[in-house]
Amino acid sequence: MKYPENYVAYLVEFHATRDFFECHELLEAYWKEHPADEQALIWVGLIQLAVGQYHERRGNLAGAAKMYEQALGKLTVEALDSLGLDGAAAIIELEAALSRSKQLEDAPSPAYKDMNLVVVDAQLQLLCEQECAERGVAQSKWGLPSDRTDEALIHRHTLRDRSDVIAAREEAIAARKKKPSTHNR
Q: Domains, the chain, ranges and CATH?
């Protein structure tokens, strides 16, 4: 099977850097570029899984639970198996993450645990190793726990450059203000 480059990069980010925000960005870009992809539902489920991990690590357990529930609605053992993963193990971990998030919503210090998606396809494992080497990502970090002190990793969405989004929003507001009112005076 030919695996999309964004998927391989997703797995590297998921396991070697634990940058779940980047996982979301990578697969979302692929999904949007390939709207007719027959695996679109699986890509969305994997995006939601990464977003769930991102929320859970930040302590947003309600957000994590919501994402995990949505991911479980899209991911199946068979679908994950078809992507070179141990689908059964992934679903068990995802269900455990959902349960943990729901149980700990009121806990002061959540017992966050990084998930691992077990790669069972040797070709996919080789592609992930090559991607790690090309990007200078230490293969030795694969599957290790997140650095829970890395603020840039944990709060990544708050640190990204959103100047283009803000500028577009300001332009839209200015354009609305310039339009003549259609209300009766």
A: 5-178 (1.10.3450.10)
